[in-house]
Design goal:
There is one protein chain. The chain is α+β, with helices and mostly antiparallel strands and 103 residues long. It is built from two helices and seven strands. The strands form two sheets. It has a five-stranded antiparallel sheet, covered by helices on one side. The chain is globular and about 30 Å long. The termini are far apart.
């Protein structure tokens, strides 16, 4: 039984980077007088995208993995009420992923 668990675990690990690549590396900046909000409870790009889609007033989101502010946060899900522009990731960030709510 153990010999089947190790290959299954390896396949699962290989599939994770492929899933993360579905999201564009970018950051969304708020437009006009739009507010920018932060949620540290979302873990991963998919969770941040789903959170934005389910949050009233959310027009776009940026997820930064491995953010350590506050201490121990797995990442930062920043969402805006109005999308001003979509920019390449900040040079100081290892990777930012973003998306917009269609509708």
């Amino acid at each position: 039984m153990t010999r089947f668990l190790i290959p299954a675990a390896l396949l699962a690990c290989l599939a994770l980077p492929a899933a993360a690549q579905e999201f564009e590396e970018c950051q969304i900046l708020p437009g006009g007088g739009a507010s920018s909000n932060v949620d540290y409870n979302q873990i991963g790009t998919a969770a941040c995208a789903e959170f934005c889609a389910a949050t009233e007033g959310c027009a776009g989101w940026t997820y930064t993995p491995h953010n350590f502010n506050p201490d121990g946060a797995p990442g930062e899900c920043r969402w805006v009420t109005e999308v001003g522009s979509v920019e390449p990731p900040a040079e100081t960030a290892s990777a930012n992923f973003c998306g917009q709510v269609s509708g």
